[in-house]
């Protein structure tokens, strides 16, 4: 009889755990809030620079969408890469400070800074989204900017 009761309790607990796990999944297949929080336990600390290596979707207010590819900077502890727009390609270089702010310099000619970026990692994004501003050199206006990770660099 004790074995039957124990078996019933184990089955009931397993069933409850399965139902909870199903509730964590969203209709789009992504993890729900409980799972996301557990997966992003490190989200309260600034992202490591190597988590920036990869391909990013870039949206700047009033401009066509673009794509950025970031990798390690060969001379400094930051990132270097390129920004591909419909109008051409620019070079990017920058780093993340202790508060999680990503600062990027953009150069259209490879010699002078043509724009600057100041972006902050978004809470609960697991380091996959940064929001902030983009400012073209010589222009006082700062435009809202968002970069969202498309895929991490292999390795």
List the helices and strands and how they pair.
Blueprint: H1 2-24, H2 33-39, E1 54-60, E2 66-72, E3 79-85, E4 88-96, E5 101-107, E6 115-121, E7 129-136, E8 143-152
Antiparallel strand pairs: 1-2, 1-8, 2-3, 3-4, 4-5, 5-6, 6-7, 7-8
Write up what this structure looks like.
The protein is of the alpha+beta class and 155 residues long. The protein has an 8-stranded antiparallel β-barrel. It has 2 domains: 38 residues; 108 residues, Lipocalin, CATH 2.40.128. The longest helix is centred in the N-terminal third of the chain and has 23 residues. The N terminus is likely disordered. Keywords: Signal. This is Lipoprotein.
State the fourth-level CATH superfamily of the largest domain.
Answer: Quinohemoprotein amine dehydrogenase alpha subunit, domain 2
How far apart, in Å, are the first and last alpha carbons?
Answer: 55 Å
Indicate how many domains the architecture comprises. Answer: 2
CATH topology of the largest domain: Lipocalin
Mind telling me the CATH class of the largest domain?
A: Mainly Beta
Low-confidence stretches: 1-38
Shape: globular
Secondary structure class reads alpha+beta
| Cα-atom radius of gyration | 22 Å
Along the chain, the helix and strand elements come as HHEEEEEEEE
Largest sheet: 8 strands, antiparallel, barrel
The helicity comes to: 10-25%
Number of strands: 8
**Which whole number gives the mean pLDDT?**
79
Q: What is the strand arrangement across the widest sheet?
A: 1-2-3-4-5-6-7-8
Number of helices: 2
Query: What share of residues are in beta strands?
Result: 35-45%
CATH architecture of the largest domain: Beta Barrel
């Amino acid at each position: 009889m004790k074995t039957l009761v124990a078996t019933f309790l184990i089955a009931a607990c397993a069933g409850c755990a399965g139902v909870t796990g199903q509730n964590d999944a969203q209709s789009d297949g992504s993890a729900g809030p409980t799972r996301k929080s557990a997966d992003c336990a490190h989200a309260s600390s600034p992202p490591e620079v190597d988590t920036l290596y990869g391909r990013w979707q870039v949206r700047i207010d009033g401009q066509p969408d673009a794509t950025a590819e970031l990798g390690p900077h060969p001379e400094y502890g930051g990132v270097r890469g390129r920004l591909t727009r419909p109008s051409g390609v620019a070079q990017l270089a920058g780093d993340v400070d202790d508060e999680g702010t990503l600062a990027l310099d953009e150069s259209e000619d490879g010699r002078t800074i043509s724009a600057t970026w100041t972006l902050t990692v978004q809470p609960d994004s697991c380091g996959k989204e940064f929001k902030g501003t983009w400012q073209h050199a010589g222009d006082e206006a700062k435009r809202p900017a968002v970069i969202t990770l498309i895929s991490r660099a292999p390795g």
